[in-house]
Amino acid sequence: MTTPHAPSVFGAVHLGYIIIETNRFTDWQRFGTDAIGMHHDPLSRDLMRFRLDDQECRFLLRRGPAEDVVTTGWHIDDHAAFEQIEARIRAHGVPLAAGTDEEAALRGVERLLRFPGPKGITQEIYTNPVKSTAPLRMLASAFATGDSGMGHVALTSTKPAQVRGYFNTVFDARLTDYIDETISGVKLKIRFLRVDERHHSIAVAATRGLPIDPVPTRVQHLNIQAATLDDVAQSYQRVHELGFDMALSVGQHTNDRELSYYARTPSGFEWEVGWNPLVIDESTWEPTTHQGISIWGHLPVGQTIVDKLAQFRAGARSLARPEDTVPALSGAGIPDN
After folding, report:
1. The predicted structure's pLDDT at residue 3
2. Strands 294-297 and 246-253
3. 254 pLDDT band (50/70/90 cuts)?
4. At 72, which helix (H) or strand (E)?
5. Are the C-beta atoms of residues 138 and 39 closer than 8 Å to each other?
6. Res 210: pLDDT
7. Helical segments of 54-178, H only
8. pLDDT of 190-229, one tens digit each?
9. Rounded distance, CA 167 to CA 121, Å?
10. What single-letter DSSP state applies at residue 267?
11. Which H or E run contains 51?
């Protein structure tokens, strides 16, 4: 078990890759390359990858029925931190599996371990990402990754304290801040968790007072960070011109000040392209609560009453859908202050 005296792995953990399972390969290729502007590598009929930088793989898409994110991969800076995380998971009695050489090669890493995560999303840790010497062929000028990782994952949960407890146990995640928001009459509280200098690598949204999860997919959205404001504007225009659904128009967030928009992926969850979020100064940062997700913009695009009814139906169905938070790693959770 971890103890208060155990060294922290905070700062040595970064979001590294995402695995998506889908049968909509043609739509995803157009979405990723022609709309968002990423580099595309076809591997086989059933596998393809997207790159953002010199790392061989940032998104691995495999053929299958889930139409969802199935795995998040975390880059661990060094072997000492990697082995410390491994020891924590073993100490809590949670099963670990080593990835095969073939699985590591598909992800562009040298070694990996996998273990269960909240909402059925497998978590993987790895060291030493493989760098590609092949030039990037993409419409975007560049994406911001580096010490901040490659973006963030946002999910909804009926057990937010346990999800927060999970990522604190495994990665020493820290609370950055909260946002209180009301969307379509539903009151949400969103918790933002960081594992490095990025404002957040994980966002956890929960309905206040009701154990309802209004999002049918495991993740609500993914985020990647564009290098320039022009990249955001140009990809926003391409998403429109190519006929992909836009979920939220361009706007700026209250807490991390990121300017962004949200497109809807071929699998149904949302994809945020952002620019210039603030970087956390650990010596001065104190968590606060913000009212509303946006300073300006981020308005719903093309939402109809049918869409709203579908959202409420999904929420009602979630009452009968058990949510796994991996209790051995989340414990009683971390309640809000």
Report:
1. 47
2. antiparallel
3. very high
4. strand 68-76
5. yes
6. 72
7. 79-91, 101-107, 160-171
8. 999 999 999 999 999 998 877 888 888 999 999 999 999 9
9. 13
10. T
11. strand 47-51
Gyration radius of the chain over CA positions: 19
Residue 39, pLDDT > 60, answer yes
* Residue among 101, 107, 78, 103 at smallest CA distance from 7: 78
Residue 293, classed as helix, strand or coil, is: coil
* 127 DSSP β-pair partners: 111
| Cβ pair 107, 122 in contact under 8 A | no
Q: To which residue do tokens 């795995």 refer?
A: 71
Q: What is the DSSP letter of 279?
A: B
**Token digits for 156?**
């909804």
Residue type, 255: N
How far apart are alpha carbons 170 and 310 in whole angstroms? Answer: 35
pTM over 0.90: yes
Q: Which of 335, 334, 323 is nearest to 117 (CA)?
A: 323
The token duo for 245 is 């659904």
**Structure tokens given for 194:** 């960081």
Res 7 pLDDT > 60: yes
Report the alpha-carbon distance of residue 10 to residue 194 in Å, rounded. 9
Distances (CA, A) of 225 to 32, 56, 333: 14, 18, 30
pLDDT at 111 over 90: yes
Sign of CA dihedral 156, 153, 2, 93: positive
The pLDDT assigned to 182 comes to 87
Two tokens, residue 75: 């880059």
- 15: Cβ contacts below 8 Å, ≥ 6 apart: 72, 73, 74, 75, 149, 150, 151, 152, 153, 195, 198, 201
